Prior knowledge:
Layout: E1 2-8, H1 13-17, E2 22-25, E3 35-43, E4 46-55, E5 66-71, E6 82-92, H2 100-122
Antiparallel strand pairs: 1-2, 1-6, 2-5, 3-4, 3-6, 4-5
Amino acid sequence: xxxxxxxxxxxxxxxxxxxxxxxxxxxxxxxxxxxxxxxxxxxxxxxxxxxxxxxxxxxxxxxxxxxxxxxxxxxxxxxxxxxxxxxxxxxxxxxxxxxxxxxxxxxxxxxxxxxxxxxxxxx
Length: 123
C-alpha cells in the first residue's frame, strides 16, 4: 500500500525526543491500519527508509490522526515538500506509554527491527 502526500507542520515532539519526523495528513478514507509501520519514503529519485506511526499520538493524548515518519538518516529532509509513502510491514499497534523514556525505548526498538528488515531485503 502507498499514499502520496504533502508534508504538514508538526508539533516538534519527535525532534525534541531525538526522533525528528516528517508529518503527513491521514485522510479519513485511508485504509491504512493504525499503528507503527516499516516504510519507504520516495521523493523523486531519492528513497529513504523509515518507521512511521499512523494514527493518534496516544502518549501525548493526540486528537488528530496523522502519519509521522522518522527517517533512519535522522534528517527531516527539509527539501521534501511531497512524498510517496510505501507501507512495507506492520510492526505493532500504537500504545500509550506512561513515560517519555518508555516511548523512546520502544521507538529505538522499532527502528532496530525495521533496519533488520531492510538489511534482509537487500540480500
